[in-house]
Amino acid sequence: MKKIGLLILAIFFFAGIHAQSSKVQSAYNFLKYGKLDKAKVAIEEASLNPKTMSDAKTWYYYGDIFLKIQLSEEEQYKNLDSNANEKAYDAYQKALKLDEKGEYVVFINDRLIVCAEQFYNSGVGFYNKQNYEVATQSFVKAATINQHLGNLDSLSYFYAAQSAFFANQIDVAKDYLDKLIAVNYKNENIYRVRSEIYKMQADTAMALTTIKKGREVYPDDFSLIIAETNIYLAANEKDKAMNLLQLAITKDDTNPTLFFAVGTNYDQMGNYEEAEKNYKKAIAIDNQYFDANYNLGALYVNKAIEIMEKANSLPLSEEKKYNQMKEEADNLLRTSIPYLEKADELQPGDAYTLRTLKDIYTRLSMLDKLKAVNERMKE
């Protein structure tokens, strides 16, 4: 009797295993005939059951089913799981760990390439929506999969770095940028962004070194020229900045910002004529450029003040020269008015512009305009 009892128990035991194994087989069959909803239900049940959850085949089929859902264009299937690619990837990883005989390795590696492509595409979508944190995760996964497969996915590295930078994940961005620089990846932006990170970390020397390394590869790249110029401007190295600005103008002589920057640099160096010439070039390209109009007006005002300071230091016996210098200063103030009034038109209510105009109108006895500007300053 005992033996019969044991036999009956054994039959039920094997029947139980078969029942659970049949879930895996059913999942495969449903997948084979494209019934992804039923395949999903069957494989999820098998993956949760202690009898089959440690079987490499279970997770291999699990990955296949969810990857198929990810790739499906059919309305009834493509929305079965919004995280299908991630689940497929995780399932393949489990299958590889459980596959002691290496039975599925070749097949899974082929499928992982598809997972990587899907992560990359997902990253692009999130990047375009400016969801940079999630985009970073997607690009990192794409790069990681390809690295596991022995492929250097430079493009995913690049977008992972750029997304991480925009997501303020500076350490992640830095890591991937350094990898790209190490393999001489051909994209000028990696040097510019890496330099920006060094600047954020107050390491100006490395910021400059990185930009110079980039310019060795891309000597004529406009963005790198400007990046290096900005470093010199911030360090008050005006001569070096000026040389680069002049180089930048040869690359783009329709950019008003460049002429404005050159004008500002000459202005700070005390070169009145060159500053005036370049401010005018900026305005000629874009007459709606507030900063160029304001700076040119301010240039004339400052020159007038300089002349009057010299005039006021003259002895009383030099009245004729004093009057000549005063007239010269007043003419400069008159010259400044159209530019400052244009600046006021472009940015009404700017305090510096209004105050400067008030001083000029007072000095030149332009009472109607003085009254109007006083009224506006009261508002």
Brief summary:
This protein is an all-alpha fold and 379 residues long. Helix content is 80%, strand content 0%. Among the domains are: 19-103, Tetratricopeptide repeat domain (Serine Threonine Protein Phosphatase 5, Tetratricopeptide repeat), CATH 1.25.40; 275-379, Alpha Horseshoe (Serine Threonine Protein Phosphatase 5, Tetratricopeptide repeat), CATH 1.25.40.
Keywords:
single chain, 379 residues, mainly alpha, Serine Threonine Protein Phosphatase 5, Tetratricopeptide repeat, 19 helices, 0% strand, elongated, disordered N terminus
What Rg, in angstroms, do the CA atoms define? 36 Å
For the record, the CATH class of the domain at 275-379 is: Mainly Alpha
Poorly predicted regions: 1-20
CATH-derived topology of the domain at 275-379? Serine Threonine Protein Phosphatase 5, Tetratricopeptide repeat
Mean pLDDT across the residues is 89
Helical fraction: over 70%
The coarse silhouette is elongated
Helix-strand topology string: HHHHHHHHHHHHHHHHHHH
Strand content: under 5%
Architecture overview:
The protein is mostly helical. Among the domains are: 85 residues, Serine Threonine Protein Phosphatase 5, Tetratricopeptide repeat, CATH 1.25.40; 105 residues, Serine Threonine Protein Phosphatase 5, Tetratricopeptide repeat. Helix 2 runs antiparallel to helix 3, helix 5 runs antiparallel to helix 6 and helix 11 packs antiparallel against helix 12. The longest helix is centred in the first third of the chain and has 31 residues. The chain is elongated and about 115 Å long. The termini are far apart. The N terminus is likely disordered.
